[in-house]
Design a protein that fits this description.
Blueprint (H helix, E strand, L loop, with lengths): L2 H88 L8 H5 L2 E6 L3 E6 L5 E5 L9 E4 L5 E10 L4 E6 L19 E6 L7 E13 L5 E6 L11 E3 L5 E8 L7 E5 H15 L7
Antiparallel strand pairs: 1-2, 1-4, 2-3, 3-6, 4-5, 5-6, 7-8, 7-10, 8-9, 9-12, 10-11, 11-12
Length: 285
């Protein structure tokens, strides 16, 4: 073989070798890239699967929580309905038909330091209670007779008469005020409240005195032997016509069945003074 033939063959072999090396490098790079892309895809799939499973777990927990709340609510409502029946059965004939109507306008008031009672005085959700129920509190809400938790705002208060005006949003059944100037000694009354946390408890008694002086020395209080306990504060004192004649305020611990309620005409005057000053409107008549 001639020399120039050897050079041509050598050059051709070198070109083939270079081509093979370059091709190998390119193929290897492609394989590496595909491998990386595959790993990245698997990582994304794993992340998506984990995120999906997390959301499914959250959804499951939410559904379980909702189911538990619904079961609890049904149990509470059933319990309250049973309590209503017991209350109506235990009350005298004077009040057996009044309790169910009145209870819809009564609310439980809870704060971070105490609890008490209030009652709805307007259809758009204004509530009256005792100011001392809110003393020292930083958080406040109401529970209606169906156990619904209601966001509650403090509108104003009068410490001399221990009255506070609150507001909840919505449409409600209000309770009417009676004329406390027409109260008769010996007439039957009921007090509705939450003594010691026992929601919507009813006690029955009579009017033992009227125009009694209170802690403010004003002759503005009804004396009653209807049992009042911590938690009754702010609840209504109701006559046989289903009208509020007083707001349960305090009791004397030195004697038995010596409870006192601020008379309804004073309540109306204080509420209107608060609302006219702050809301520029008269609430009750």
């Amino acid at each position: 073989m001639k020399k120039h033939h050897k050079i041509i063959l050598g050059s051709f072999g070198t070109i083939v070798l270079i081509f093979m090396i370059v091709s190998g490098i390119l193929i290897n790079g492609l394989i590496v890239k595909q491998t990386l892309n595959h790993k990245e895809t698997l990582a994304k799939l794993d992340e998506l699967q984990l995120d999906t499973q997390t959301k499914l777990n959250q959804l499951t927990e939410s559904l379980m929580s909702t189911r538990q709340e619904l079961n609890s609510l049904n149990n509470d409502l059933g319990s309250i309905n049973q309590e209503f029946s017991l209350l109506k059965a235990s009350a005298s004939s004077d009040f057996s038909g009044i309790i169910e109507d009145s209870i819809k306008s009564v609310v439980t008031i809870r704060t971070d330091v105490s609890q008490g009672t209030g009652f709805i005085v307007t259809e758009d959700g204004y509530i009256v209670t005792n100011a001392h129920v809110l003393s020292g509190a930083s958080r406040l809400y109401c529970l209606d007779y169906q156990q619904e938790k209601l966001t509650t705002d403090l509108i104003g208060y009068n410490l001399d008469y221990d009255i506070a005006l609150l507001k909840i949003n919505g449409t409600f059944e209000k309770i009417e005020f009676g004329d406390s100037d027409n109260i008769q000694l010996g007439e039957k009354v009921i007090a509705i409240g939450n003594p010691l946390g026992l929601q919507f408890s009813v006690t029955e008694g009579i009017v033992s005195g009227i125009h009694r002086p209170g802690l403010n020395q004003e002759p503005a209080y009804i004396q009653t032997d209807a049992a009042l306990n911590p938690g009754n504060s702010g609840g209504p004192l109701i006559n046989k016509k289903g009208k509020v004649i007083g707001i349960n305020n305090f009791k004397l611990g030195t004697g038995e069945n010596l409870g006192f309620a601020l008379e309804s005409n004073y309540i109306k005057n204080v509420l209107n003074a608060i609302s006219e000053k702050i809301l520029n409107q008269t609430l009750v008549y």
